[in-house]
Amino acid sequence: MTDANTVTPRPVTIGVSLKTYFGHGQAREWFAAVAESIRSMPAIADGSVTFFVVPTYLQLHLARDAFAGTPVRIGAQDVSQYGPGPYTGEISAAELAEVGVSITEIGHAERRRLFGEDSALVAHKATAALTHGIEPLLCVGESHRGDPQDAAAATVAQLAADLHGAPAGPVIVAYEPVWAIGAPEPAPADHIVAVTRALRAALLADPARAGSAVIYGGSAGPGLLASLGDAVDGLFLGRFAHDVTDLATVLTEASALALSREGSLS
Questions:
Q1: Which CATH architecture is the domain 12-265 placed in?
Q2: What is the mean pLDDT of each run of 10 residues along the chain (266 residues)?
Q3: 108: annotated active-site residue
Q4: Is residue 36 among the annotated active site residues?
Q5: Which one is catalytic: 108, 124, 132, 191?
Q6: The dihedral of CA 180, 184, 185, 186: what is its sign?
Q7: Which residue from 16, 77, 113, 191 has the fewest beta carbons nearer than 10 Å?
Q8: Nearest Cα to Cα of residue 103 among 173, 156, 33, 45
Q9: Half-sphere exposure of 166 toward its Cβ, with a 13 Å CA cutoff?
Q10: Which residue among 105, 135, 142, 176 is the active-site one?
């Protein structure tokens, strides 16, 4: 029996988006190698580290099969704002849920820049996802580097606009300053901390977003979790995670962070 006063530490969340870097065969090999790598990681098995993978649409079944029997969550890189119907080329939230997708990436900087997506459209997509029990992986971040407090205010405002009118449910907010995506180094730790703490405060103030998490993306890699401490719930990785050994290093660091959080509450 769990004591009513017991506080459960937040899990450390690590995610990977493959974008469209991998072909079908390469993705199959990567999934198999990662699935083998995580077998020796008890923190993933017991849920103290949450790990998710976001492949292309055509790779969803490959990922689902490779990670069957594990707690690894499978995400989609986008979702239609529309339900099933006459929407050629779209993928509905209903169908994503049907094939086992539990997370969908929404509002990535590339979608906003290349395809003209704005916060109104992002909010419609968040609504579609939450309506079908899919957790939005909501990407937010300022375009140009500036004062951390200004960045915090801008991203909190973006968060509110991106979720305007969306039904209740947890979200994973990925703070990805656009100027840090693909850069040689992530944003400075003090900058990340200022923004992620503001985002977390905004989520905590909204009862509809209970259970939400704030993670950092944008040239994230080994060593970053330790420097950020409790200011983030985890990391969102990109090309760095293509190397399975490098990914395992970050997952090991996440396991250590999860263990330290458990120790601090005991």
A1: Alpha-Beta Barrel (3.20)
A2: 52 97 98 97 97 98 98 98 98 98 97 97 98 98 95 98 98 96 91 97 97 95 91 95 96 94 69
A3: yes
A4: no
A5: 108
A6: positive
A7: 113
A8: 173
A9: 34
A10: 176
